Amino acid sequence: HVIKNVNLETVCGITSALPENIHPEVAFAGKSNVGKSSLINALMNRKSYARTSQQPGKTQTINFYNINDEIYFVDLPGYGYAKVSNEIKAKWGRMIENYLQRSKQLRLVFLLIDIRHEPSQNDRHMYRWIVENGFYPVIIATKADKIKRSQLSKQLKLIKNTLDVAEGTPVVAFSALSKQGRDEIWDLIETYALN
Ligand code: GTP
Ligand code: MG
């Protein structure tokens, strides 16, 4: 996919009104530090336009990246970030839910899971939400460079089994270092969000 321009167009905090965009939106959900912002950079062919950090809890707002005046990538705050109070966690949870429920342009929700770990309760909850709300589920298994090639299929199976995914659900191994999986993810965006 040719990236002509990218622009962080809207940043929403807990009290902001959501934008009424006219182009399709693709959202990136997953726990803190799983690699949402890094995946967005890889898809945009930008090194660090979306801010990333080794510390979990980097993205604390809903960030709308306008790509080519054609589509928006929506970078969500991670869930399960331990360092903030329960009150703040609940507010972020409501902010994310509110966006996912109300956006009129949301076409696709990617659920990111660290390839090394068994999906958590929160991950299972998010997966169910995606399916129950009629979105086509796509799982991205992130940080694929952190495991041996020989472990790949075992880890993908663990993710599929724990989330209890429907037959045929795409589970794409991705690495922000090697860019493994990037083209396949763009293909899914073209198929499910741009048509
Ligand atoms: P929050 O905004 O806190 O929810 O995190 P996030 O999901 O946006 O994660 P982010 O993209 O900031 O990445 C977190 C850390 O993981 C950073 O140090 C990244 O460099 C690292 N990381 C992300 N993707 C990969 C990957 O594919 N491979 C490796 N080795 N590291 C990665
Ligand atoms: Mg982030």
From TrEMBL:
PROSITE patterns: G_ENGB (PS51706). InterPro entries: G_ENGB_dom, GTP-bd, GTP-bd_ribosome_bio_YsxC, P-loop_NTPase. Residues 22-195 form the EngB-type G domain. CDD domains: YihA_EngB (cd01876). Signal peptide: none annotated. Its cofactor is Mg(2+). One of its GO terms (molecular function) is GTP binding. Pfam families: MMR_HSR1 (PF01926). It comes from the Bacteria. One of its GO terms (cellular component) is cytosol. Keywords: Cell cycle, Cell division, GTP-binding, Magnesium, Metal-binding, Nucleotide-binding, Septation. GO terms for biological process: division septum assembly. NCBIfam families: GTPase_YsxC. Necessary for normal cell division and for the maintenance of normal septation. Belongs to the TRAFAC class TrmE-Era-EngA-EngB-Septin-like GTPase superfamily. EngB GTPase family. This is Probable GTP-binding protein EngB.
